[in-house]
Every structure is written in structure tokens, then in C-alpha cells.
Batch of 2 targets.
Target 1
Amino acid sequence: MNNLDTVQQTLTFARHAGADEAEALLSRRRVLTIEVSNGQVETIKQAEDQGLAVRVLVGKRIGLSYATELSEASLRRAAQRAVEIARASDADESVGFAEPRAIPALVGFDPEMAQHSIDEKIERAFAIERAARQYDARIVLTRRITYAERDSIETIANTRGLVAEQHNNGCGGGGLVIARDAREQEMGFGADAKRRYADLNPEKIGVEAAEKAVLMLGATNVATQRASILLDPKMAGAFLAIIADLVSADNVQKGKSLLAGKIGRAVAAAGVTLVDDGAYPDAPGMRAFDDEGVPSQRTVVIADGVLQSYLHTTYTARKASAHSTGNATRTSFKTAPEAQPSNFYLVAGTESPDALRAGMTRGLWVRNLMNLHTANPISGEFSFGANGLWIENGKIVGPVRGVTISGNLTDLLLNIRGIGNDVVWQGGYGISVGAPSVLIEDVSIAGR
Amino acid sequence: MTLDPNYLIAALNAGRAYWGDYAEIFAEQRADTIIVLDDGRLEQLSAGEEAGLGVRVFSGKTSAYVYTTDFSRDAIVEALQLAHAATRQRTAEQAGQTLVAALERQATVPMLATYKQMPDGVPLATKVAVVRNADRVARGLAEIRQVTATYSDTIQDVTIVNSLEEVAQDRRVRTVFRVNVVAQKDDVIQSAFEATGGLAGFEQVEGEVSERLARVAAERARRMLYARPAPAGTMPVVCAAEAGGVLVHEAMGHGMEADFNLPGQPISVFAGKIGQAVASPKVTIVDDATIPGLYGSARFDDEGVPTQRRVLIENGILQNYMHDRTTAREMGVPPNGCGRRQTFRHTPMPRMSNTLMLAGNDEPDAIIRSVARGLLVKQMGGGQVNIVSGEFVFKVQEAFLIENGQVTEPVRGATLIGNGPAILKIIDMVGTDAGETRIGTCGKYDQGAPVGHGIPTLRIPEIVVGGIVPGMSETIR
């Protein structure tokens, strides 16, 4: 049975089971993961995976079930279970499925991916490792050097007449390397993800990992103080992922965001513009439609420091009398859609990262942050572990580790004093973010 | 029946040309129910079924893994063939060898749970009541603004067969309740978290369990509203027994997983140190997957090896690493039942189960009295660790100042930052009170695993506490 028949048949089973409305999403994935380490192939993982999610409405009550087996009996069971679940749920005026709309024509499938042999792909993993080792003699070990590909087909239909299918693929690489000198060892991580086979540069990933590891050898600590921080693009991107949670309408509507009720207000420094765009060409999260079948669009979230919009699903949009922004995202076919960014990016500034550093009186050029998931989205309080390079009067003094940077996200956004011109996209597995270097003033740094 | 060991053995036999040095089938069937109540409303109610299998083939040091949701014999043989081809070695066919079901062997491995109430027999409405009751109790207290309550149960059945003629079948039923409460007074917002979970049926959350935990979390969040920001700097810290062993798990346990300690590839600071002193003589740490009912327990690991109680550090001396089959083979030791995987979509690796620091000789009260000025950590929050350098950062959910040997006022926003192996060496007091085991989901290379952890009261004489540094800015709350 083809994909469209499978989802349509599920809708029929749902109606028979007593659903007033229904939606079925079939996700089929193929994955390839190659792991090498110290000149040897360790693991090759290949798979075909599938899952079907069915959501139903019984009156104003919604239920979700799923199955990995696509036999008629299994689909019927899933549809019946979804109806049972809906009957046990709370009634909610805002629940509902997406209306059919025109889907943008995006090409998310690169046929070149399938034209290369597995040996060539193994060679890409080895290229990451070689580049890391050649970067510096102190790189003594490598770990889980990975080349990975995914290929996914999503087919969605609902009883409002929506039918859509998209086929995307992509590839990426990553790895952990270890640098050692006479006194200590440090690790560095490199990663990149691309839509097109030809766009991935394995050597760059290896050099990134090696550079990070070697840089931190001999790191010391600093005294507890207030100073500036300069986030490199990857760490600025990690910060964007936190901001993304604050502008998710799910969190806003539940009062779980410090940005709730602040549309039209200055929430960040002038010059800060944040955009979500599911159709951004070749970005890691590019997609024609979201996980409810809503077409991708460009949404300006913060314009020149002023909050403009939250990110919506069909449900949050109905609740707020707005339109879905095409941000419904399911972490897997087992979970309900939530408002999450597609490709979320900070618009580049004009200064080079070196110019930003040169302007720092005293502070930390942040290369790694730990514990980012612990920021409090409501109060804005955060305390992250950090390492990087200590800067005084624009000059690099040396590596620093074992410090925390703490404060409040509200202050952090308002204290942004510089935005670089060096945007780096990262993602491919979860969230896709693009950010340049960012300079922030007056941050609390706790050290020895 | 798809998990029938005889069927899987027959399929493995049918593909015996593709075994390489070792071949294995991990077949899994699971049913999950998740109920999330958030913002006073049932936000998610879902239930479903998954079934799949993963085939692994080793040739020399290279392994290949192929997984599928297709249980047909042809699909299994094809998966073996694909995996074998991927290992790129043409090992000689193991002539004539076929597997005989060794079902009697697994009968000697004890069952760890009795599952008084299988969750699939409990009505949905009864499960929904668990989260509703928690919400009602927490919201009954002043200053409580938000409650998120989650109930989940999983029935996971696995069958593992391999070319060593081993068969393992395990049923893991896990029932979990979690609650997060947010309290607000004027501009100050604080949250607190409680959870319970086990290798257990619905009995884990029956009665007043969810109400009690919701009240504990709500009262803690309210207490923190009136707390001043924690001091920043270096000071002694006492971890209370109820704080949980997340620090031991993260900052020390991961470093004792064998894949970070392979010969010639010393990633962890514990590499090559079996038999050596790596901690204060007061420290004994075990990882025990055999304790009935605990969240991290299982009868077999996900490679079909019976689980064990593993002594990792005894009186400060490093005793053992945690192994999966691969690391055990590389280091020439028997596997000790730590090979775990999240689902059939994942390859196994060495993981912790229930990681516990054992009780020592110091009276808990005396430990607190010994501190002139420091921090008492009552509840740990989330954390992260760098295995290579040993660096860690942990949030503290609930803390109090200790002044002149007395516990005084609550403080909020504290973070502990330090080096795991260095901390292990300086722990200078360990309490007589083995604490309650708390639960968590451990993440390693993007795979989640249910774990337990616990500690007695202990004293770290010197650690960096990251708090808010007072400065010129007036925006600090």
C-alpha cells in the first residue's frame, strides 16, 4: 500500500471508530551512520524505520495514538485507541486540525546522496579524523567520529481535505577529539550538517574539534567579577535555542515565558533582529510544511529589539485568534505537535569577530557552555558553566575554564552590544539555528 | 508471536552465513502511555505500540547494526546480510554450527519485579486522576502559579538471541510520576521538582503518592520565594542524603564506564587506575542493577547479559569499570551486564543503572556542625559533565546557608562547579544515613536510559559555588 493510501485508510478507520475529525501522519525514514575511531571503522548503522501517528477529535476532545506496524489491524487498533483517549481528555474549544493551503515548492532532496558508495562515505569520516590529527601533534585520541545521512518522507492528511507529502534528505558529520600535553587533557567537539552532499566539508569539522581541544590546554581560572562575554557563533546559536523556547506560543500561553505579554515592547538591545523561516534556502531545518501540514513561512520574531510575534501551531493560533506560523513540530511520531522554531536565526551585523574582541576591555571569549538546559524560562535566572579565552584590552591573555556565568536572560538580551558578520548555521537533528558572534556586557562571572 | 525466542533463533540460523565473529538479534515490543497535565488542563494524552528489531554483526573490531520494524524471517536474514556486508570482512562461514535454544539457562536468573498492577489493566481515568490530584493539591497552596504533572508507564518486552547460543527474555514495566511546580510572589518566581518511578506497575503511584509529592514540591518552591540569592565563591558544601546522587552519577560514574577507559584510548581520568586510590578512603560507590523495583534495575541488560551489583570504588580504591560486550572483549574481562540501549533503534553501550554511594561513619548532624560558613544542598537540580577534563556544573534546587555549624536561611540560584575526580579525593566526611534513591533519565550520545542514584550526607571541604555576583547593575533581582 502506498503512503497516501495508508494515511487515508487510517482516517477512514478513525471515522468508523467514532471520530468527528482525524489527522494521520506517516513518517518513513532511512538512516545511515558511520562511526570511525583511531583509523578504524567501528560501527555502521543502517535502517528503515516507520511510524504512523493518528490524532482524532471527538467533539472538542483530542486524542493521539501511534503504531509502527502498518497492517490494517494495527491501523484500526491505533484509530480506536485514539478515540478512547479523546473521550478521556478535557474538552478544549481551540483544538483542531489545519486547513489545506498551498505548499511552497522547495527542493529538499539531493539525489547525489544516493550516488556515492558506502566506501566514499566511510572516507568522509576518516577525513574528519585525519584533519583533526594533522592540526596539532597534541591531538592524541579521537572518539565517535561520525558521518551520518538521513532520508525522510512525511505524508500527512486530515479530514478537512489537507493532503501533503515531502521528501527531504541531508548529511552531517561530527566528532570528539582529545588533546593532551604533559599536564592534562582536554576535549573538543566539531559538527556540521548540510542539505547537500557536496556542501559538507569533513576537514572543517576535524579542524574545529582539534582547535577547541588544543585551545583549552593549560587553562586557568579567573577571579569572581563582572565583565563582558563574547559568544562565538556556535555558542550564540546555543543561546538562540533558549530564546526559541521563550517565543514558543505553547510556553507563552501557559505563562512559562518571561516574554509573555511583551509584544510591541523592547526586549533586546537595538539592532537585534530574530527571524524564523522554515523555507530558508538550504538551512538545516528547511521544510515545505510543518508537522500539521501548514506551509513554511518567514516570521519576524524580534525586529530591532522589539518583540513582534510568537511562533504558533494550529492550536496556539486558534487560542490567540492568530494564524499558525507553520511551527508545529513533533519530536517523534509518538508526541503531539508543539510550537518550535524551524530555522531560527539572528540577523548578521557588520563587525568581524576580531573587531568585537578588540573592543573588549576585560572578559571571556566563550568557546563552550555547560548546563544550558537549566535556564529558568519564567524568572530568566541562569547559571552556566563556561570556558574560553580571557581577553584584556582587546588582547588574548589565555584559556580559562571552570567558571560560571550567571544572571538574568532579560538583562542579557538588553546588554547585547555587538553582533558579528560571521553567521554559522547548526542543526540537522533537533533545532536548526543560525547565529553570528555576539558581544554582551556586564555579566556575572564566578571563578576562584 | 514476534518475540518468541524459537522463532528468532530459527531466523538467526537461517542467516548463519552472515554471522561474522558474533551475531545478535535484539527484538523489542513496547506499549507506552503518557499523560501530561499542564496549566490546569490535560495537555497530552497518548498511548501507542512500537515493535522492531535490531541485528548486530561483528567482524573483528568492526560492528554493523541494522534495524527494522519488519519481523519476517526474510527481513531478518536480509538485515544480517546487510550488516555482514557492511563490516567488509568475509569471515569463514562457521561450518555446520546451528543454535540450540538455551532457554533453561535464563531460568536461573532471578526475576526482579512482581508487578502487582500491570498498567495495561488500569483504566485510563484512574491514571488521569493521578495527575489531576497532584494539580489540585499544589494549587490549594498560596503563591502557586503553575503545575505540570506527568504520568507515564511503559511495558517493554525484549528477547535477545545471539550466536553464543544465549537467550534472554526480559519484561521491564516502569511507572513514573513527575511534578514541577512554579511559585510566584511579586517579581520573584521559583520552581521545584519531585518525581517517583520504579521497575514497577501502577502500585508505584497508587494511593496518595502524587498528592504528597506535589505538596513537597509546592512547599519547596514557596520556601525559595523568600530566599536570598546564594553567595558566590569557594566554600565548604554539605550534600544532604535526600539531595540524590546526581553528582556521583554525572561527575564520577560516567568516568568509570569502560568505553572511556579502553587500553590505549584513555579518555577518562580513571583509565588504567584499577587497584589504585582514586577517592578518599571514606568513599565506596556501587552500581547495582539487581535491586528489585528500582528505576534503573533490569534482569538482563540489552545484550542479554544477566545484570549484577558492581563495586566501582571500595574505600577509595578503583575496583571495576562498567562493561558492555564490546569493551569487555577488548579488555579481556567477562561482561558485567551494563550494555544498555534506548530502543531497538540504538546500539548498546556501557551505562549505569542505580549508582549509589554507600553509608560511612560520620553522624549527619556532626557533619553540619563541622562547617563554619558554607552551603547545605538539600536538593540537586540538573547538571552536565565533561568526561575528559572531569569538569562539572550542577544547579542546586534547594540550599541553605550553614553559619557556625547551624543551618540558617534558604538561598536560591546556587550552582556547584568543580572537577569530579578532584572532589572524590577531598570528600572528608560521609554520613551513616544512606539516602533515598532518586530517579533520572541519563543521556549519553543522544540515548536516554532510566537510572537511579543516591548518597549519604557528605561534606566537600572546598568547592566553587556560582551565585550572583553583586555589582553596579541594578537590574539584578
Note: The two ends of chain B are 61 Å apart (CA to CA).
Target 2
Amino acid sequence: METRVVELDEHFFRHESGRIVAALTRVFGVHNLAMAEDVAQDAFCRALEVWKLRGLPANPSAWLMATARNRAIDILRRERTARTFAPELGRFLESEWTLAPVVHELLGPPAIRDDELRMMFSCCHPRLGEPAQVALILNILCGFSVDEVAAAFFSGRAAIEKRIARAKKTLAGSKKLFELTAANFPARLSAVHRALYLLFNEGYHGASSESAIRIDLCREAIRLAGVLRRDPLASTPATLALEALMCLHAARLPGRLDSAGDLNSFFDQDRAAWDIELVAEGRRLLDLSATGSELTEYHLEAGIAAVHADASCAEETDWQRIVQLYEMLLAIRPSPVIALNRAIAIAQQNGPDRGLKEIRAIEGLDRLAAYPFYPAALGELEMRNGHPQIAHDHFRVALALARSPMERRFLERRIVACHNQRR
Amino acid sequence: MSEFLYLYRGGDSASSPEEMQQSMQKWVAWMKQLGDHGHLKSIGNPLEPTGKVVRGKQKAVTDGPFAEAKDLIGGYTLIEAKDLDEAAELAKGCPHFDTGGDVEVRPIMQINM
């Protein structure tokens, strides 16, 4: 028996699915998105049937694409009189002289890279809300099934199915995939940044209790940010800063959860568990992003994460620098959550009393009413102030607002800590 | 040692790429295990889900599918085992059951002349 040495990359099928659907959509036209998805699905089923018995081919990626390509050529031949495909390819697909060569070229590696980008930009259509954009990116480009997207968002299957179906209808209703040479490229690129940022945050802070799913989301966001970076047009300072911030945050993921999979307080994190390679990559990208005149919120957030990565422990952190960066961030994006983080950093530097005063002075504090980490921050500072009873009450309020089992367990442990301090 | 044919019947196709990858990895591991223990005579082949049936004295030709999806044979593998019981026991490790399929185990007839 010959044993194959070829091994599939983790999530190979997911990533290939995104690439193949994007490439086929380019050939069939965005109005035939569903057809592209069917052909990709067929190619995958076929691959599975053959590979499970015969083992992996030498180049699984090329095998899949060739299977999808042959099927695509069949469909184009059979239906070219009954259907319209990508309008800009019309003439080439009509003639038998050009059909196969054009499809070969469009489903070849250089073209596919652009297709993946084009699809990413198309998913961020301004007519779609941000949650729909993120769901669409996960479903089409990251190959997540509806169930997997629902699990990632800690949301009901029916709601997610509806959201994705509606978003696909909007996408299929647009005339064609987004062209990277379009005049509105910069605006759309910002929308893509925002969607990838949300995708990453869903993984990092999200409500899904399964840590494996959350890590997957973070990795997908980093992967897609890398796709942007490798494109000369999309590789702007903001793109680099966004990827830097993702790397620097993701580096902390292993320390963020304890051995039972529960949330650790930032101050209790085991910094030895941080991923030093990701920290180094984040730093490198942050350095590269420091060109041009544009200072984005991604630069500032990455800057904050880099200061944390520089410190050997919470006490050694340059809190003054962090407060400054939060203040710059507030100037770009005023938000009570950022103001809360600034107040916590001030408390680190100037003591809990000062921190509590800063929290009370936050503009739009009422908008934090449902945010569990607002009462939790009050609780932390009161505890440090030696008021475990008051802290306890704040943590109880926070517990009632907790959005996931993980947050609940974290806050329950803080309540126990209050009890212990009172004794 | 005797030879047996595994016929893989029915089974749902995986719905998401991640499920496919997991299914794929289980199959590869199972095949490797059969091979490592000297049970794998021939990995066999998958079968197309389409086909034709030629039936009766009239030799009428009809298009497939010729069975319910749950009865459709999706592929076969030739294995070696001590006896039918061992062959059936080995089949229990097949990932095909995860997707609701069956494995039919048939002894290859021994002809000693």
C-alpha cells in the first residue's frame, strides 16, 4: 500500500470553498451566485467520494479547481443560450474557440486571488448592514455553514439563515462583483476593514461559549486581512494597522482563557502563554503601517495592544502612554466603552479613586447601562479600594447583564472573591 | 486469510466544508489503519451515482438511479480477514456510519480446485 504524504491544511475545505465560489461567481456572474455555490458543493462532494477511498491527490487544491472548472464548462456550454452569465465575458463564453481557454484562465491561481478580494469587497455592499456583511463573509469566503455561523454568533439558526439569504439576494441583485479599479475603492476598503474588525471582535469578545469557534473567527479575520495586505491596492497603512492589531490581540488569546476554558481577568493573565510569534508579526506590521498621514483607529488600538505586549506584567505597563492613546482614540471615535477603558487605565496609574471619578464623568454613561463590564469595572475598583460589599453589589448587577456562560462564570468568581475579601 | 468485499451503501453527503474535512480525515485514518494491519487488499473505487440498468429478456435499458438513495452503493473496498466475523468487526470502524450509511460485508467465494 502506498501511503500518501500529502496532508490537508487545517480548514482546507473551508478556505478552498471561499476561493472556488468567488472564482466561479466571476465566471457565472454575480446573479448566478447560487449556481456557483452549487458547482463548488458538487466539486467538494466529488472530492470527498474519491479521496476518502483513494487518498489525497498530490495537489488537492488544483484537483478541486479542475473538477469545478470542468463542471463549469459543461454548464456554460449547455446553458449559454438559455441564460446570461458574466456580462463582461459574454462574447468569450459564446464561442467554442474561447470558452475553455477563458474559463481556464479565470480559474487559475493569479485570477483567483483577485476574485477572493472582489468577493470580499462585494460582501461589504453599503446596502447591507454590518452584521449581514460579516455573516456573508463567513458564509461565502470562509466556508462556514449556516449552522456554524449561528454557533459563532451565539444566535438562532433561523435568524442567521434569514440574514444570509437576504444578504445573498442583495448581493445577487447587484449588477456585478465589485471592481478593484472602481472610483469608490477607498470608501469600500474602509467598509471591508470595519467588517473584518467586527469579525475579529466577534471571535475575541463574542458570546459564543465554544472557544474553538472563537479562535477560528479570529484566525479567519487575520487570514482575510492578509489577503488584503498582499494586494498592492488594498495594502494601505490602515490595512497593515488592522492586521497588526489583530495579531497583537490574538497573541493574547491563549492567556485569556484559563485551563478550564474560562475568562481570565486581564490582570491575572499568564503572559508567558502569549504567542510571541504573533506579537512579533503584529509589531512588524505596526511598524510598516506607520507611513502616510492617516492615523486610524486601528493604528491606535494596535498601539495600545503593543504597549501591553511590551510589559512583562500589568504593573510594569506604561499606563500613561495607554491613557494618551485612548484619548487619541476617543477623539477619532467617541464611545463610552473606550472612555471606560481610559478610566480603567487611569485607575492603574493614579489609583482606584481617580478611576472611579473618571468613570462617573464619562459622557453618555447611560449608554453603558446594558454593558456588563461597566458595573464589573466599578466592582474591580471598589474592591481595590477596600469596599468588598459595594464591589459585591456591582458584580451582582454585572452578573445579571452577562451575555454568555463564560462571562457569567467569570463574574461569579469575582463575587466569590468579594466574599473572601470581606472575611 | 480470506477476502471480503465491503460495499458502502447510502449515507448523507456532508453539508459544510468543515464537516467534509472531518469526514475525510476519518476515512484516511481508517484506511491507513486497515492497511497498517494488513487487512487492505485493494482500496477499491468510488462509484458514480448515475448509471444504467439492463433488465429482463427484452434487455430494456433504463437510466439510474436504480435504487433508493439509501440503498445506492457508493463504492467498494477489498479486504482480507480471518473470517466473516472478523471482517464484520473491522467494518464497525468505518466512518460511513457517521453519515447514516451501511457497510455490506460479503465474502469473496473461495474456489479450490
Note: Residues 1-107 of chain A form one domain.
